[in-house]
Design brief:
about 350 residues; alpha/beta; Quinone Oxidoreductase, Chain A, domain 1; Rossmann fold; 7-stranded mixed sheet; 6-stranded parallel sheet; 13 helices; about 25% strand; globular; binds zinc ion; Zinc-dependent alcohol dehydrogenase family protein; ADH-like_C; metal-binding; ER; oxidoreductase
């Protein structure tokens, strides 16, 4: 089969690779029909994730059709259409019982990191019963493929950790796919205002179409001052950090009103400054974390009901065997006016 393989920092190849086989009774082999490129794949390619080694198949979002199951798999059979969680988990250990699947003591592997991922014709899914979800008939698979990672990430680590409440004022720093998914999932909780902050006017304009009520371009003046002006000097109830730089974490710390919550989603390659000397008096709460995908079943229902439409984020589509071109577009996303890039193997 063909797969996109990591070859060390800055290097990757679309190569012929052995098709995965069942290794444990709880495994399933899935034929990928749609996969994506995620911002984290670019972090891996840049060498920011040393755990990913030479030869690893990348990719952690995907939908497909079950090809084969091990003798211990009871919830799925060949021919089933499935959504793949970016995290595989045993479902039985202490962490899984707390729905902290990414910390599963027997699995908890993120696809495309410590085990082979979804940017391939086939993928092996360990613990298939607790790592796959049935696709309800008639549901748009382009919408569902982003429920493997960016939608649960945004909902769990951004919106739920941020405790978004009806009528509140929310700021989201970063209008990339994760920030946009935060924008769409935050609306499930009816905030009064959502202020989107980015450096790119096209992305900000797109965010208006997806429901942002205000936008701030942080390359055109001080972002903190602009947010304060928009909120009559009060600040925001929730600041979601969806970039991963010290400067954007700092913006979030400065725009919170008393009782505010800072929900950090961005993966930070460098230490950030924590301004406790300013934060304590405002009674703020700071959270961060790694996606568990425990909200995926709920998100499947919200997609089915039409309450959120993740497919709005798709700007580019490529056949899977043109994945190298797709990476070029995604790498230059703001210039290419790209948001989410989908790869087809239908
Ligand atoms: P992205 O790079 O596509 O988007 C980031 C956005 O931030 C871009 O639109 C960029 O213009 C904007 N930006 C950059 N500097 C800025 C600044 N100074 N002020 C305002 N905006 C600025 O990334 P993405 O794919 O949307 O992912 C966002 C982050 O979420 C990444 O760090 C990613 O690794 C992380 N992530 C975390 C988890 C988790 O489990 N916590 C899961 C998936 C992704
Ligand atoms: Zn991802
Ligand atoms: Zn477990």
């Amino acid at each position: 089969m063909k797969a996109l393989v990591f070859r060390g920092p800055g290097k990757f190849e679309w190569v012929e690779k052995e098709k995965p086989t069942i290794q444990n009774p709880t495994d399933a082999i899935v034929r990928i029909t749609k996969t994506t490129i995620c911002g984290t794949d670019l972090h891996i390619l840049g060498g920011d994730v040393p755990a990913v080694t030479d030869g690893r198949t990348l990719g952690h979002e995907g939908v497909g059709i079950v090809e084969e199951v091990g003798s211990g798999v009871s919830n799925f059979k060949p021919g089933d259409r499935v959504l793949i969680s970016c995290v595989t988990s045993c479902g039985r250990c202490d962490y899984c019982k707390k729905a902290m699947y990414a910390h599963c003591e027997d699995g908890g592997w993120i696809l495309g990191h410590l085990i082979d991922g979804t940017q391939a014709e086939y993928v092996r899914i360990p613990y298939a019963d607790t790592s796959l979800y049935h696709i309800p008939p008639g549901t748009d698979e382009e919408a569902l493929v982003m429920l493997s990672d960016i939608f649960p990430t945004s909902l769990e680590i951004g919106v739920i950790n941020g405790e978004v409440q009806p009528g509140e004022v929310i700021a989201i720093v970063g209008a990339g796919p994760v920030g946009m998914a935060s924008l769409l999932t935050a609306q499930l909780y009816s905030p009064a205002e959502i202020i989107m902050i980015d450096l790119d006017d096209n992305r900000l304009e797109m965010s208006r179409k997806f429901g942002a009520t205000r936008t701030v371009n942080s390359s055109k003046g001080n972002a903190v001052e602009q947010v304060m002006e928009l909120t009559d000097g009060k600040g925001v109830d929730v600041a979601i950090e969806a970039v991963g730089f010290p400067v954007t974490f700092d913006i979030c710390q400065q725009i919170l009103k008393p009782g505010g919550r800072l929900a950090n989603v961005g993966v930070h390659g460098k230490p950030v400054e924590l301004h406790l000397e300013q934060l304590w008096i405002r009674n703020v709460k700071i959270t961060t974390g790694l996606v568990s995908t425990s909200t995926t079943p709920m998100l499947i229902k919200t997609v089915q009901s039409g309450k959120i439409k993740p497919q709005q984020l798709v700007t580019h589509r490529f056949p899977l065997d043109q994945i190298m071109q797709a990476y070029e577009v995604f790498r230059n996303a703001p210039k290419e006016k790209a948001m989410k890039v989908i790869l087809y193997n239908d």
